[in-house]
Amino acid sequence: MNALIIEDELSIANLIKVNLEAEGISADIIQHGNEAIDLIQSQKSQKYSLFILDRMLPAVDGVEICKFLRMYKSTQDKPILMVTALTSPADIISGLDAGADDYITKPFDINILKARVRSLLRRVNEESQPEQSNSKLFNHKGLRVDLEQCKVWANEEEINLTVSEFKLLCTLIEKPGKVLTRKQLVESIQGGTVHVTDRTIDTHVFGLRKKLQSLPTIIETIRGIGYRVLND
Amino acid sequence: MIKNISSIIFLKIFKRFFFLQVTALVLIFFVSLNISKNALEDIEAQGFKKYIKNYISKSISNFPHPDQICNDLSRDSLFLLIIDGTEKIECKSSQYSDYQAKDILSSFQKIKINQHIFAKSRITNNNSFYYYFPLPHSLGNYSVYYVSSSKSLDRIVKDMTNKHTIALISIIILFTLISILVSFRLSNPVKSIMSKITNFTDHESEEKIVEKLDEDNLTEWEVIESSFTRTQNSAQSLSISLNLEIKRFQELLDAIPDPIFSIDEEGTVLFANSSFLTQIATTNSLDDGYIGAYFLDIARHYDLKKYLDKVIDLKTNSEPLEIRIDKAGQARSFLVKANKLENSTQETNKYVCIFSDITKIKLAEKMRVDFVGNVSHEIRTPLTSIKGYVQTLESIMTEEEKEGKTQIFKVIENSCERLTNLFNDLLSLSIIDSQSDIHKELVPIRDITEQIISNCLSMYPEVDVKVHTEYSFEEFLTDPALIENILQNLVSNSFKYMGKPGNIYISWNQSDSFTKLTVRDDGEGIAEHHLPRVFERFYRVDQARERNTDDSIYSGSGLGLSIVKSSVNKLAGQISTESKANEGTQFTIVLPH
Question: Which residues, 6 or more positions from B141, have their beta carbon under 8 angstroms from its beta carbon?
C-alpha cells in the first residue's frame, strides 16, 4: 500500500510518513504543489492508493490539487485526507467540496490520523472486492440497505423512509467514512420538482436519525461542515 | 352696508349699466318728446297752412279782402292785426291794445318770421303761435299778424308728456331690474377671479382688494391686471430661484464622492453626479449629454443591469449588490443600493442608485482573513510537530523504555494541548471582536444544544451529571457559530465545575422581541466577589486549580467566558450571572430579534 503525502513542512510530512509506515503503509513526500500537479498530470500517481494533502500550500492552494486529483481517471476514486491548519468551516467545506473525503485539523492526534487513514483504506479494500462493489446491498453494524428494492432495515426491523431520506442515506453509505458537505448532499437528492436547500438536508438527517433510533451513532454530524456514515 | 368684494363689484357693474341705460332712456325721452311736440305743432300749423294755401294757390286777384280774413281769424285769436303798407290798421282783434301791439310786433321782429311761416315761441313768455303772412291785394299790400293760443295744443302736449314720463319711468324700472340681473350675471366671473386672486396670492388679501376697488376707485379689471402682473413677476422670480436650487442641488450631488445616478423604469438616465461619470461610466464621450440616454450605453456593466432589472421588476427596494468596476486600470469594489423613489403622481417609477466604495473595506477584510490564515498556519505547524513527535516517540518505545517516562510524555502532551486550546480560544476571540459581519440563518436550537451536550459528555466522562433541556420553540434567526461558542463554553464550564454529582438545566425561551437562553447548574458556584470580573480575559477564580497540569482536562485557557461575552455582544444581546457558592450558577442570555 502506497500513500502520497503533499505537505510543505518537512517535519510534519515526516511525522505522517513515520506513522503510516508503522501501519504498514509506505509513503512518498512531495513538498511543492507544482511538483504534485506535474505528478498527477503525468499519471505517475497511479501507484498511490491514498493521498494526504495539506490544505494550505505555498504557491498552490490545496483545493486546486484536490480538484486536479479528481480530474484524472487514475486518481479520481482514490481517497484524499485533507490536513488543515485552517479550521474555519468555510475552509473545510471548500476542501471537501473540491473532492476530499475526510479532513483532520492541525495539531492532530496521530492515533486519530491513523484511524482515519485506516477507515479510508478499508473502504478502498471493500470496493476493490468484486462482489462487494457490484452489490446492491449494504450491510454494516446493524444497518442493512437493499438498493434495488429500496428497503432499509435497522437491526432487522424494517424502516419506512421517504424518497428524499432514502436518497440521502444511499449517498451517505455509498462512501462510508467520507465526510459529505450539505452542498454535496443537496446535489445528490436534487431532482425535478424538488427544491432542496441546506436546511432541508438538516431536516432530512434529523428525520432519518429519528427513524434509525436503534442505531443512534450511525450518522455522524460534523457541526458546520456536514455528515458521514461511520466506517469503524 | 357690508363692504366686500362681491358687493363692490356688483355695484360697479350695476352702476355702469344703470347710468348707461338711464342716460339713453332720458335722451330718447326728450328727443322723442321734442319730435312729438314739433309734430303736433306742425299738425296745428297744418290747419292754418291749409287755410293759407287756398289763397296762395289762387291768383292775386283772388286774394280775399282783409276784412274777410279778419272775420275768419279774429274769433280764435289772441291778437290779430292786419295793416296795410302805411301801417294803417285795417283790422284788429277784440283783445287788441296798443300797449300789447308794440311788444308783439317787436316779438315778430325777433322771431324773424319768414313769409308763410309760423313760429311758436316762448320769447314772449307765453305759449302762442305767431303767424305772419303778406296779403297782396288789389287794394294794397297788407300784412297779417296773427297770434293764436296754444292752450289746447299745450294740453295735448302735456298729456303726451305725462304719458311719456310714465312710460319712461316704467321702462327705467324695467331696465333697472334687467341691469341688476345682468350685473349679477356679469359680476360672477369677475368675483370668482377675485376670489382666486385672494386665495393663491399672498399679497392680495380681501381687504386690500376692497380698498382698491372702493377707495382707490380702480376698476375690477385694473385690479385683476395688477394682480396678474404681480403673479407673473413672482412666477419669474420663483423660476429663477428654482433654477438656482437645481443648480445648487447638482453641485451638492457632484460634491458627494459616492457615485449616484437615477433612472426611470425604461432604464433612461434621469440624473448622474460627477462621481458616477468619473468612476462608473464606461463611455468616454459624454459631450452628447447623458441625461436621457439608456443607462447601459453609458455604463456597460451587465451585473449592474441585472440587479437594476430585478429592482424595477419587483418595484421595491432590494438587497444591496456588490460589484467590481474596472476603470482606467483601477479596480474598485462597490456596494450598490437601488431605491424606488416616492411617487405621489401617476407617472412612471423612478429609482435612485447609490454606490458605496468598499474597496478599502474589502481589502482590509482580505488582509485580516489572510493574516488569520497565516497566523493559524504558523502556530499550528510547530504545535503539530511537538504533539505528533511526542506521540510517535511513545508509540515506538517499548514498555521497558517507557518505564518512568510516562509522566514526562504526559506533561509535554498536555502542555501542547493547553497551548492549542489557548491559541484556538485567542483566535476565536479575535475573530469575534473584529469587525467581521455576523451571518444570520435559521438555527435549530435542539440540534445544536444536543450536539454540544453530547460533546461535553464525551469530553468529561468522569463527571456525574444529568442534563435537562427545555425548548419552547424550534428555531430562530441568528449566527450559529456564535451560539455554538456560547453554549459550548457555558455548558463545559458547568461540567467542569460540578464538583459533586449534580444537574445542568438548559432552557430556551422566546417572546415577541427577544430570545432567552438560561444555563443553570447546581455545582460549585462562584463567590460573590468574583462575579463582576468573571468575563475578563484570563480571569480565574481558582488560579491554583486551573493551572494544574495534572487536571489538564479541567484546565481552561481562561478565555471561555470572554468568548461568551464577546459572542453575546456581537449578537447585540445581554448576559447576566447569578451564583451562590456551593449552590450553583446561572447564566442568563437575552438576544433581541
Answer: B84, B85, B134, B135
Q: What's the confidence (pLDDT) of residue B589? A: 96
Residues B408 and B454 in one domain: no
- Which helix (H) or strand (E) segment holds residue B317: the answer is none
* pLDDT of B205 above 80: no
Which residues does chain B have within 8 Å of residue A110's beta carbon, measured at their own beta carbons? 387-388, 391-392, 395
Confidence (pLDDT) at A29 = 94
Among B388, B416, B481, select the one facing A110 at the smallest CB separation: B388
User: Is pLDDT at B50 greater than 50 in this prediction?
Assistant: yes
The residue of chain B with its CA nearest to that of A57 is B377
- CB contact at 8 A, B348 and B270: no
pLDDT at B228: 85
Residue A232 — very low, low, confident or very high, per pLDDT cuts 50/70/90? low
Instruction: Say if A111 is an interface residue toward chain B (CB within 8 Å).
Output: yes
Name the residue of chain A whose CA is nearest to B424's CA. A87
Residues A116 and A6 in one domain: yes
* Co-location of A122 and A216 in the same domain: no
C-alpha span between A164 and A159 (Å, rounded):
14
Q: Based on the fold, state whether residues A219 and A114 are members of the same structural domain.
A: no
Instruction: Tell whether the model's pLDDT for residue B549 goes beyond 60.
Output: no
Please report the number of interchain residue pairs, chain A to chain B, with beta-carbon separation below 8 angstroms.
74
> CA dist B291 to B183, B267, B269, B444, B523, Å?
55, 11, 5, 51, 73
The label of the residue with cell 492508493 reads A49
Complex ipTM, two decimals? 0.85
> Is the same domain home to A20 and A117?
yes
Q: Does A130 touch chain B (CB under 8 A)?
A: no
Tell me the C-alpha distance between B163 and B165, whole Å. Answer: 5
Domain assignment of residue A153, given as a range: 135-229
Contact indicator for B563, B544 with CB cutoff of 8 Å = no
Helix-, strand-, coil-residue percentages of chain A, each rounded to 5: 45, 25, 30
Nearest to A217 by CA among A158, A146, A142: A142
Are residues A44 and A83 located together in one domain of the fold? yes
Averaged pLDDT, B421-439: 85
pLDDT of residue B545: 59
Task: For residues B176-194, give the mean pLDDT.
Answer: 86
Any chain A CB within 8 A of the CB of B484? Answer: yes
CATH number for the domain harbouring residue A82 = 3.40.50.2300
The alpha carbon of residue A11 is apart from the nearest alpha carbon of chain B, in Å, by 7
pLDDT tens by residue, B457-515: 888 888 889 999 999 998 899 998 899 999 999 999 999 888 889 999 999 999 989 99
